[in-house]
Amino acid sequence: xxxxxxxxxxxxxxxxxxxxxxxxxxxxxxxxxxxxxxxxxxxxxxxxxxxxxxxxxxxxxxxxxxxxxxxxxxxxxxxxxxxxxxxxxxxxxxxxxxxxxxxxxxxxxxxxxxxxxxxxxxxxxxxxxxxxxxxxxxxxxxxxxxxxxxxxxxxxxxxxxxxxxxxxxxxxxxxxxxxxxxxxxxxxxxxxxxxxxxxxxxxxxxxxxxxxxxxxxxxxxxxxxxxxxxxxxxxxxxxxxxxxxxxx
Length: 248
Fold this sequence. Notes:
Layout: E1 8-9, E2 27-28, E3 47-50, E4 53-56, H1 57-61, E5 65-71, H2 77-88, H3 90-95, E6 98-104, H4 108-121, E7 131-133, H5 138-142, H6 148-152, E8 164-168, E9 174-179, H7 188-204, E10 218-220, H8 226-233, E11 237-240, E12 243-246
Parallel strand pairs: 5-6, 6-7
Antiparallel strand pairs: 1-2, 3-4, 5-8, 8-9, 10-12, 11-12
Helix pairs in contact: 2-4
C-alpha cells in the first residue's frame, strides 16, 4: 500500500474557515522521495482501483510472473494498438504463468469506455486483464515512469512519456525495465521473448545469447567449470574458454 511519506499535498497557508470547499488539493511529487528501482530490486507494492475492481499488486500477482505496462492517457493512438496487442497475446502469457496489468493516467470509468474501442479495433471478444486508474499519478511516481519534463507535470495535464514496461518474477523482484518514447510503439513479442529467456535461465542455470529464441542453444555461465558443465548439461561446444554453448 502507498506510504503516506511518499506523497505530500500542497495546501494554502490559511485557516480552515478560509479554505473554499471547491479547492482541490494536488499531490506534490519530490524526486528525493522517489524509490530507486533497479534490476532485482523488490517491486514496490501498491493498491489501486482498476477496471476489474480494487486490487493489491503483490496479491494480484500471487505466485505468478507479472508484466506491468503504462500509458499516459486513454484514447491515444499508439497505446490503443499496444493494449490490443497484449490482449491478443494473453493466452501466450497465461501459458508462461504471467499476469498482465496495464495502467493509464486517467480514471477507471474512462478506461472502460476506451476498452470498447480496443475490443473493436483489435477484434477482441473480451478485453480480459485489469487496467489501473492512475489519475493521481501515484503509481507513475512510485515506478518512475516519466522523463525529466514529464516529472514536472505529474500533478497536472498529460504526461506523454508514461510508457514503461516492468517484468516482475514470482518473488516480486523486478527482472526487466524498458521505457519507450511517446512516438515508438512497444514490441510485445520482445516482452514474451525476454520472459522465455528469464524462465529458461532460472530453471536451467544458463544465460541466453543475442536474439535468442526458444529452442536455440544457450550459454553456460563462466562460473561453471568444464567438469561441472559436462555433468549438468552433457555435451557442449566451446567457442572460447569463456563462451560455451549447449542445448537446454
